[in-house]
Fold each of these.
Amino acid sequence: MRIERLRIRGLRCLTDIDLALNPAINLFIGDNGAGKTSVLEAVFLLSHASSFRSGAKDALLQRGANQLSVFAELRHSDDRMCRIGLGRGSARWEAKVDGENVALGQLVRQCAVVCFEPGSHALIAGPSEERRRYLDWGVFHVEHDFISCWRRYQRALKQRNSLLRSSTIVSDALFEPWESELAQTAERIDSFRRAYLDLLRPKLASSAAGLLPELGGLELRYRRGWAEDADLGRLLQEQRGRDVARGHTTVGPHRADWSIAFEHAPLREHLSRGQEKLTALGCMLAQAQLHADCCGEWPVVCLDDLASELDQAHQTAVVEQLIAAGAQVLLTGTEAPRALSAISTSMFHVEQGLVARLL
C-alpha cells in the first residue's frame, strides 16, 4: 500500500498542505517545531483515528481553525485506488471512503500505517494500555470479526462499570446479563489475540536478532487479564464486592498485557533506554512484516526524527530492510540522514507549517 497524494488542512501548524508522495522514500527536513512530525501524524490519523502523540484531541486543531481534515489517495498492491478522508469540526471524527460516509472502522481498515517515533519506547517501558493498543491494531487488520466482538465487550464493560458505581443498591439480576456477555466475548478476544501473537513471535524474534543480537533469544509473554484456570463469568460474580469498592471491573481482556524477555535481559529493567527503543523498533518492523504476510501489502512506515533515535548502523539497516521490502517510508529529520546518501529520495522542506518539495 502507498499514499500517492496527501492533503492536510487545519492540523496543528499545517494550514493547507497538498503533497504528491514518492512510492518509496519521502524525507521531510526542517528545524525543530517546523511541522515535520505533524505530517507523519496526519498519515497516522488515517490508520488509527488517533495520534501517536500524547495530549488532548483538541490540540490537533490548528489555533484559530474551526475544523481539520486529512485526505489521501491510496493505491493498494492489487493496483486498486481508494480515496479516504478524516475530518473533525466538533467532538466527533467523520470518515469517508470514496466519497461515502463510513464508520471509523471502515476507514481504518483501508489504511495501515506503523510508526517509530521518540515516544515509541513507551511500548516497552510504558503502561499496558500502549501494548494492548499495539496488539489490537494488529489483530484488527488480520481478523475481521475482532472489532465487532471488541465493541460488544466494551458495551458490556461500560454497563457493568455503571452498575458498580451506582449510588443505590443493585440486585445481582442486573449484573448477570452483562457479566455473561463479558465472559463470552472475552474468550473470543483472548483467542484472537493468542492466534495473532503466535504469528508475531517468529517475526519479532527475527527482527530483534538483527537489532539486538547481544541480548540473545527472545520470549514473548502474554497475560490475558484474568487467571488462566478461571472462568471469567464466575470470577466477575465473586469479585463484585471488590469491584464495587474500586468502582470499575478489575479483571478481563481490558486488563491484558504482554512483555518481552531476552535471554540476557530477562526483565525490562535490565534494558537501557537505547535498548528499549530498539526493542520497540523491532516490534514495529515485526508487525509491519506480519501485516504484509497476512494482507498482501506492507503498511506505510513512518520514522520520526530517525537520526536522533538510532545510530548510523541501525539507521542503515532499517532503511535497507524497508527498501528491500518495497515499503513506502515517510521520515523526518533536521537534515538528511547519512543512511539515505546513496538512495533515491523525494525530499521536502518544512518551515512554519509550509511544505515545499526540494527533490
Amino acid sequence: MYRYVLAIHIIFMVSWMAGLFYIVRLFIYHTEANEKPEADRSILQNQFQLMESKLWNIITTPAMVLTVLAGLTMLYLNPGLLSVGWMHVKLTFVLGLLIYHFRCQSIMKQLRLGIFKLSSTQLRFWNELATIFLVAIVFTVILKSAIDWLYGLVGLVIFAVVIMSAVKVYRYYRLKNRKDR
C-alpha cells in the first residue's frame, strides 16, 4: 500500500510543481501586459486572469492538496519516518513550499484587482524560488545522510546563485534588445 501512495505523492507533486512554475510565468506576462496599449492590455489581462484562475483552481491547488494528503498518508503508514532527521529537513522545505504556494495565491488575487506590487524582474526571481525548493526537497529525500546534506546545502546555495545570476543576465539582454529596437 505504501508504494502506491508514494507513486500518487510523486505524480501530484510533479503536477503541483508544474502549476507553480507556470502560474508565475503567467504573472510575469500579466505584469508585462501593462506595457501594451490600452486595447491590447485589457484583452491580455482578462485572458491572463482567466488562465491563472483555471490553472490555480483546476490543477495547482488540487495537486497541492493531493500531494500533502498522500504525504500525510505515507507518514501514517510509516510513522518511523518522523524519527529520521532528513524527514524533518524535507518537511521544513515543504512548509516553505506551502508558504510559497499561498503567497502565489495572494499575488494572483492582487493582479486580479489591478494591483501590481512586483515587477516582471522580481517575479522572475520569485519563479526561481520554486525551483530551489524542488531541488532542495529532491536532494534531501535522495541523499538522506548528514554529510550528503552538507554537500547538498553547498550545492543548493551554488545552484541558487547560478539561477539568480541567470535571471539578471536575462534581464540585461532583454533590456538591451528593447533599446536596440
Amino acid sequence: MPSNVIRPLPSGSEEALKHFQNLLKFETDCWDVHYAMHHNLQDFVLLDVRGIETAKKGYIKGAVFMPHATINEESLSAYPDDTVFIVYCAGPHCNATEKAAIRLARLGRPVKKMIGGVTGWLDEGFELSKDV
C-alpha cells in the first residue's frame, strides 16, 4: 500500500505539465518580483493589500499600498485597464491576496499573487522599508 505522501498517485506527466504551467498564470515569486524591480524590468504594479497598521511595520519599497477592502473602480482609476497587478500580503498564513485578487478579477483587471508575501520576501534575504 502506498504511503500518504504519494496517495493518491501523482498524475501523468502531461497533466502535471498543464497544472504547473497554469499555476504560473496565477502566481509569481518574491525573487522574480525583486529582480524585475531592481533591473528596470517592472511591467506590473506591486500592491501591498494588507491593513495599514501591519503595512506600517514594513513594506516592499516601490509597492503601492491598497488594502484589499479598498480595491474598487475608483481606487484603480489611475491605472490603464491592462495594468498587471501583483498582490502580496503577510505570507502563507494570510488570505488578503486572495481577497484582493478576487476584487481585481471581478473588475476585469489582470492579477497575480506573489507567493510567500512579506514572509517569503524576508526569507529570500530582501529588505523591507519602514519609511511612510
Amino acid sequence: MRFMSFGAPTSDAAGWVCYSTETPGLFAFARLVLDSRGQFVVRDLVVSAEDRMSATGLQSVKVGQIEREVNAWPEPLREALTKAPTTRDGFVESFRVGMVRKGESLSTKIEQGSRPKLTRPGKDDPDGFYKLVARAHREAAAQTARPAPVLAEEAGVPVATVRRWIAEARRRGHLPPGRASSTQA
C-alpha cells in the first residue's frame, strides 16, 4: 500500500487519507478518527476504480492495515488527522441520506417517489405500463443491484413475472439491453 496524499491540518480534507491498493487503478479514501483508546480507526471509506471494480480488487482494501500504518505515523502527521472537522463531511452524508434503514423495505423507500405504484398491467395502455416498468426499474437499480425482487415485492407478483415485464420493456425500447452477468436483475 502506498499513501498518495494527505490533507493539511488547515484543509477541509484533514482526517482523510488517499492511498493506492495492491490492485492497479484501485484507490481508496479513508477518514480516520480517534477511538476511546487514542488509536485511529477508519470511520468512512470510499473506494474508486479506474476501470471495473471487482470483488478481488475490493478485497485488496485492508482496513486493519490502513489503521496500523496511520497509527505508526510520526506525531506531526497523526496530529494533523485530529484537526479534521468533528462532523462528517457533506459528501459522505449525502451517501447516507438515501440508505434504507433497518426494518424499512427498499420497495417502501422507492414507493415514496413520485411514480405510481407498480401493479399488474391493464389492457387499455400496455405501452404506458412498460414505460412505468422501465421507470420503476431505473429507480430500483439506482438503489440495489437486484431490482427485480424489490419490484416484485412492491407489485405483489413473483420475481419471474417482473423479469418478464423488464424484458418486454427492453424489447419495446424503454430500457437499454441488459448487462451479461452471473446473477439476474
